[in-house]
UniProtKB/TrEMBL annotation:
InterPro entries for the chain: Solute-binding_3/MltF_N (IPR001638)
Name of this chain's protein: Solute-binding protein family 3/N-terminal domain-containing protein
Signal sequence bounds: 1-22
Keyword Signal: yes
Pfam families the UniProt entry points to: SBP_bac_3
Amino acid sequence: MPASRRLFVLLLFTCLGAFANAGPLRIVTDPWAPYVFVENGQARGLDYDASVEVFKRLGVEVHWDFMPWKRCLIEMENGQADAVLDIFMTEERRPRLHFADEPLSSAEFVLFYDRARPYPFNRLTDLQGLKVGTSPGYWYSDSDFRTSELFTREPAPSHEANLGKLVRDRVDLVVNDRRAGL
């Protein structure tokens, strides 16, 4: 997989009139520490904190909803959310969504393995026959990785569940952002 990919904040500001609307801007996101997460009932994280400060300075009221990633995407598609925090810009999404010009942060996707069961890999063929934990609805930047039939993709409902599968030897590797996985 490439060394890094950029995360983008999706801000669906189709016109300034949206700010005059009586309701707050509704932003959905998937908990993904350290970028955005809930701790002791309080939302926080690198990207969350930066976004909150920007909206505060703009005088924009925001309502945040945390949910699984696939549900975030569905709510955007159905017009039930105004924006998604930390979504990758892809050619498929570009016609339907507006992306900020500048990324909020960057991500480096890596493959995690259990130290007791290391799987050294340098190329895609090294993954042959292995089970790789993935996150449903996530877009992995390397098209060869996304389409390869050399290995089995094993989806999990959360990043924590993926890492739990790794510890319990239910998957051989887990793909995740380096910071989030650590």
